[in-house]
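Quick one: C-alpha cells for this chain, please?
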Amino acid sequence: MDLTPMATPLASFALVVGLLTLTPGLDTALILRTAALGRRRQAWGVVLGIQTGTMIWGTASAAGLSVLLTASRLAYETLRWAGVCYLLWMGVQLFRNRHQDSPDEPEAADNSGGLWAGWRRGTVTNLLNPKVGVFYVAVLTPFIPAGVPHLPAGVLLTSVHVAEGILWSAVLIGFAHTLRTWLRRPAARRALDRVTGAAVVGFGVKLALTD
C-alpha cells in the first residue's frame, strides 16, 4: 500500500486519538489501580488487553463489521447492557475487596493474577464498551483517503492509536509505581479500591443512561 496519501490523515488521526488517550476514563482507572498495588505484570496485561480490544474494534470498523452497532439497535443495546452488567459487577468486587495482608504484600503481589489475568480484564472491558465501536465507525472512515484500500488503512490508523495508548500507559504505570510505599498500608489499599470501584460503577451507570 502506498503510504504517501496517508501522511496527512495519519498526523491528524494521531492528534485526535492522542487527545482521547490523555482523557481520564475507565482504562486509566484500571491501569492506575492495578499498577499502584504493585502488580506491574498484571497492569501491563491490562494495557495489552485494552489495546487488543482497540485493535479488534478498529479492524472490525475498517472491515465494515461494527457498522452493525449503528445499524442495529438490538445489537447495540445487547452489547451495551452486557457492558453495564460487567462494569457494575467489577465495581462491586472492588468494594468487597479486603486487604488484611502483611505490609509487604504489594511487593510480593507483583505476579498476583499475572499477565493473562490482566489481559483478560482489559480485553473484556474494552470489547463490552460499544462506544469504542461507534467511535471507530464515526471517526475512522473520514481519515481514509479515497482510493486507498480500506482495511489496511484502517489497521494502520488503529495501530497509531494502540501505540499512543501503550506509551501513555507506560507513563501511568511509572507514576503509580511511586505510590507503592503509601499503599503498603491496608487502609490505603482499601481506599484505592473504593475510589476505583466508585469510578467503575459510575462508568457503568453512565453507560446504562447513555442513549
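The chain has one domain: 4-13+25-87+102-184.
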